[in-house]
Amino acid sequence: xxxxxxxxxxxxxxxxxxxxxxxxxxxxxxxxxxxxxxxxxxxxxxxxxxxxxxxxxxxxxxxxxxxxxxxxxxxxxxxxxxxxxxxxxxxxxxxxxxxxxxxxxxxxxxxxxxxxxxxxxxxxxxxxxxxxxxxxxxxxxxxxxxxxxxxxxxxxxxxxxxxxxxxxxxxxxxxxxxxxxxxxxxxxxxxxxxxxxxxxxxxxxxxxxxxxxxxxxxxxxxxxxxxxxxxxxxxxxxxxxxxxxxxxxxxxxxxxxxxxxxxxxxxxxxxxxxxxxxxxxxxxxxxxxxxxxxxxxxxxxxxxxxxxxxxxxxxxxxxxxxxxxxxxxxxxxxxxxxxxxxxxxxxxxxxxxxxxxxxxxxxxxxxxxxxxxxxxxxxxxxxxxxxxxxxxxxxxxxxxxxxxxxxxxxxxxxxxxxxxxxxxxxxxxxxxxxxxxxxxxxxxxxxxxxxxxxxxxxxxxxxxxxxxxxxxxxxxxxxxxxxxxxxxxxxxxxxxxxxxxxxxxxxxxxxxxxxxxxxxxxxxxxxxxxxxxxxxxxxxxxxxxxxxxxxxxxxxxxxxxxxxxxxxxxxxxxxxxxxxxxxxxxxxxxxxxxxxxxxxxxxxxxxxxxxxxxxxxxxxxxxxxxxxxxxxxxxxxxxxxxxxxxxxxxxxxxxxxxxxxxxxxxxxxxxxxxxxxxxxxxxxxxxxxxxxxxxxxxxxxxxxxxxxxxxxxxxxxxxxxxxxxxxxxxxxxxxxxxxxxxxxxxxxxxxxxxxxxxxxxxxxxxxxxxxxxxxxxxxxxxxxxxxxxxxxxxxxxxxxxxxxxxxxxxxx
Length: 812
Known about the structure:
By secondary structure, the protein is α+β, with helices and mostly antiparallel strands. It folds into six domains: 2-41 and 165-193, Phenylalanyl-tRNA Synthetase, Chain B, domain 1, CATH 3.30.56.10; 46-153, CATH 2.40.50.140; 206-408, 3-Layer(bba) Sandwich (Phenylalanyl-tRNA Synthetase, Chain B, domain 3); 417-486, Phenylalanyl-tRNA Synthetase, Chain B, domain 1, CATH 3.30.56; 503-708, Bira Bifunctional Protein, Domain 2 (BirA Bifunctional Protein, domain 2, 2-Layer Sandwich); 724-809, Alpha-Beta Plaits, CATH 3.30.70. It is 25% helix and 26% strand. The chain is built from 20 helices and 41 strands. A seven-stranded mixed sheet has the order 28-32-33-37-36-35-34, sandwiched between helices. Helix 5 (244-252) crosses helix 6.
């Protein structure tokens, strides 16, 4: 957005000692970000007045002419193609090196640098300029002809372009609808410069009609989308150019002059921030503000036919739309040279509706940009009074001939907002005198009452729509006008507290660090779903699984009860790429839970219970040909680093996919936390698995509880005397659990420090229903043990196990 300094001075006194550049800096510090400050005359730097003294035909082009132009200090030969040049005319001449500005319709500099060049073989040293090439209008029919001037005089000086233009960064005023105007900016400048703000005095009487010969009817079908609509009809309007002063101001801020009526609507939009629209009253019998109908179309003022949908708001007559509300008027109601009677519209539209419509149509006009910021509905009245005032000033014969239509239904939240002064000063970080606080708020238009160090503040209508609503908003207003540079720079005092540690999350992270680190396993993430066919191939009963009501795919129709099926799919995917690998996953598994139900205690509303599991799978060919023992070593390594000691029991669970002799329960402190098993060969083949595979699944819930309650690890001195390590193997019945035998062995003598199961064997030599359990036993004392002492204890072990379990010492 562009601001004119001369225009701002209509509403605020700016001290002479404040330069334009300083004012721009203060605006940036207090209100908005100013991207540039430019003197208007500087845009025409390098453009001077010249006189055409000769015109000749171009030897190589019928439509080009060769002119000789006197610019005072020298005469230039310039090739020109304009049809309207004559000898003796005074014209603008852009000298070599000049960068021409853009026309208002182009919206910015065109960066066209004038260079010395050959045009069809003839040297040309400059350029004769049209209005649009100088950014002074939109006319490109011919060269701009001047009525007077001194040869060589700067065109900016001749045109008395003394204004200063500020370029405002639009992003910095996105939340401030009131700042999309000179009037709103002037109020801000008045506040931080502490100078007089020249408030616009509304003359409501100007809207009164001496004789109502036109009945203006307005109907709003949806007040949510249009909280207010004002309209009035004027007759005796003569369409023509607007006054030179208005054209200059519009051009200065990048707006193209069109005619007196349209220029007035644009001028007021830039002055007060309220878009207006003018209709030819002969083309509008009544006004209906409604949503567009299905498949409805309208040809807009840019000569484009636009498809509308039923979410878009339109202004319509009794037959069809005449404008897209808040965005652009229709060609079927546009002001023309023959127009004598007009309807001026000042309305307020829902900001979201305008934004969505503009985006759908790809049509963001100056009007739409302002409406989508949420304008003050009360601004409609100010704008329509100003419009009638200016039109009657330009066309003295113009008269109001209708009633003032004013349909409205809105309510603004204007407070009051109550604030304790001490609280406010603590928020700002400085003790600001309460009188100064009151003066700042008054300058910004906030009525304020101070009682017992408490502020009671009323929010002005232009800040009450979507801007100021809470005490913190008032803090910002006072701080920025007072000046952030005037506040003491003190680092905030913030109590340092350690971040919240989630023990279970830290535990999972520790497991991942071990497995991904020293074990060099790869973590995987799988969906929490499995399919019926997938489970059937693994001979897993699907009866106890939770089914999904709306599965994302047929092969993902069941919630998993185990991580193992999906881990095996991961093995299948990767087995061709690696000779040997290990994968792990930490994820949820799901079970039917009778304890998790809703308030109605209905069976059909039971929710599945879920808990975290750790799944490990190793695939390949291990060094000793047994992946089961290799994976068992990984589990032992993991638990050892977690400070836990495990042992293994004969598994009591039935796993149809696992080898009977290669399945064991993982025990810690006599509590089962999971299992380790080896995949059957026939199951592996049926599932396309070509590796030797072993799996582990551990309940992280059980493991975490044990981890939390573990005793602190204490380190003992290394024994001075060597241990004695012996092996014993016993043949027992299948139903005897290895852990019971281990417990019994430890009870035999206090010199037995450690018992480990290292082999399980089942074979024909042992007989039916029997198995062999081989134990590694460590003896330790505070002296060197003798063989006789150990043999004696070994004999006691054999007798004890024989008596309790009918265990036979194996010697074959």
